[in-house]
Fold:
Amino acid sequence: MTAQGTVLWYCFLLLIALGFQRVTRCLSTLNVFTLFLVFFLLRHGLTVPFDATVNERVTNYPISSAVVSRTALAIAVTYVGMLCGIWLTREVLRTPDVDPARFGAGLRVQGLASGVYPDLFWMTVVGVVGLVALVWGRVPRDILLQWREGLSAEQYRAWREAYGSATHYSVGLVPYFGSLVRWAFLPTIVYMMYSLRHHGLSYRIGFWVTLILSAAIGLISGQKAPTLFLLMGLFVTAWLGSGRVAIRLWDPRLILAVAVTVFLVLPGLYAVQYPFMDYVPRLQLGAFRLTSEADRGLQLYFHFYPQIYPHLLGASSFVLNKVLMLGYSGLPPEQLIPVSVVGPDYKNTWNAAFIGTAWVDFGWWGVALESVVVGLVLQFIHHWFVTSQKSAALIGVYAGLIIAASRLSEASLFSALLSWGLGSSLLLFLLIKRPLLPNSPGTAQELRGPGPAAIEA
Structure:
């Protein structure tokens, strides 16, 4: 991108950030848009002017300037489309503006009712943990022994492939639901347990058990993102539950969280994968993966479709392809693209933001319409939380939704809704939630509904 184009791009990003702040207040108040916008700007914003040759540098696979320009234009269309979807939904639903101090006072979990039927909640916890354990039974024991003894970079890669082959959602029905509960339900249960810790010892014990299990799954899977997002989710849960939801750049909590994530957590996770690498190169690699790597993958989606492979018309999703019987028998784009670039023996996936799969399926119409839908979905979630009576469990669920929304910068809309919990964890909560007395403060008793549990003290 030329110097003039770079200046125009950053002016555009500034206008987008101001637009999000004007419509959602996400830069001054913690809500579902906050991390979503931050991660989208990191992955598909700040480094776009400098990523024209990123594929050539990383994989020795040059991308034409026309594809690079088309990708940048699609990103711009996406930002505008999301803002339009948010604004339209806000106007239709008449979402009220919230004052951070007054609104935050009603989020302090110490004074909130639990908001769930205990029997249904614990039945859900047992089911989720049991299904995770059932899927883990498929993991090869010899690979686990290798992990315990320490892995080289090559062994680490082999471990990720073996783990993925045993637990991938496409292997069968049990692994599919196991994948759903691992990445969607289990982290949300961790956040709910933390928010419910004032309601009894069982919730405090449950929090530590599910936290350790979720962290172990993230580490042993060989992927860094689950552990990183789990820790971020805990931070968000604590922030929401404190009631101090206003965002200030000089807030010590924010400064400490960013510093720990960037300078300790990310390099530490890369030390597991690359034990031979020094601290500074691991820091640089983490920064690249958070920024230019996302643009690199997205460019390939716009390169291969439809010039080399035809648009899939909805079949990019494994689930939709099967359920709707679309008849596509090839590899999904996140597998087909790396195989086309690296070779048939490559086992990992190259995922991209929802823009990529929208383009693969329907081209420009897909990019524009799906961007509006993303804005609609996020605004609906925000409206639901703002207008709902608050409970401790609701705070944990909303924290999970904030984290799930941030995954849209690296996953398809369908994957975010189902696999990462943006829709599935919300539906789960609605099944086990206990109604509150109308217009009651958070300390009021909960309604004795049709569920099996008695009212808690």
In short: The chain has 20 helices and no strands. Confidence is low (pLDDT under 50) at residues 440-445, 447-457.
